[in-house]
Each structure stands twice: as structure tokens, then as C-alpha cells.
Amino acid sequence: MKRALFALAGIAIALAAVDLAHKADAGPVHLHERSASYVFFALALMSAWTSALLATRSLSLAAAGGVVAGGAIGNLASVAVWSGVPNPLVVESFAFNLADVFVVTGFVLTALAMLAFAIRNRDRLREPV
Q1: Residue 86 domain flag
Q2: Secondary structure (3-state) at 90
Q3: Residues 6+ apart with CB under 8 A from 98
């Protein structure tokens, strides 16, 4: 469990730092304001997400979850620094940031890791909860 926790936390902190550095370099472009309820809801979801992944004791799930958590932390920290979330990346009519990319990528990685975890532990899938 400690390895999974350190993997998740290390990846999350590193990716959040990359996101915040990119936003700081680009400046508050396309700033999207967020409410206090957004921050509360995002923290609650991230806590539930990371707790569930850590309960599996899977290093691959923790690493993938760390990518999602890094994106979430990047956007939550942005609210504290800029009073909103800057979106310096623009493609046609879409504005986004690295944290958004990390969250989407992390969800895909988590789905793949979850599938691999289920295949590796298929004998345990029928155990009562």
C-alpha cells in the first residue's frame, strides 16, 4: 500500500507542478472562474477516487490515478492562485490546459489498468464483498 501511495502522490505532485508552471508561464489566458462549491466537490471526488484506487493496492492503478489527481490538483491550485482556472491552450474554439489533458489521459490509463487488474485477478472477481 505504501508503494502505491508514494507512486500516486509523486506522480500527482509532479504533474500538478508541470501544469502550474505552464499556466504561470502563459499567464491568465481564458480564465474560467470557479466557485467554492466546485472546489469542495472536486476535492471530495478526488479523495474518493484516490482512496478507491489505493484500496486495490495496485501500483499500476495508483500510477494512473496519480495522473488524474495531478490534473485535479493543478486546476484546484489554479483557483487559489488566479481565482479561476487559466486555459492557455487553444485549438480552434476549445480552450484548455495541461491539467485537463492529464485528467483525460489519466482516465484512459485507469481504464486500461483496471482491465489489466481484472484480468490478473479474475479468480477474485466472484468473491463476496
Answers
A1: yes
A2: strand
A3: 15, 18, 19, 22, 23, 71, 74, 89
Q: How many domains does the chain have?
A: 1
Tell me, yes or no, whether 63 lies in a domain.
yes
pLDDT value for 59: 93
* pLDDT tens figures, 47-70: 998 999 999 899 999 999 999 999
What's the pTM value of the predicted model, to 2 decimals? 0.89
The answer to the question of residue 129 being in a domain is no
Q: How far is the C-alpha of 53 from the C-alpha of 65, rounded, in Å?
A: 7
Phi, psi values for residue 27, rounded to 5°: 85, 170
Q: What local confidence, expressed as pLDDT, does residue 129 receive?
A: 74
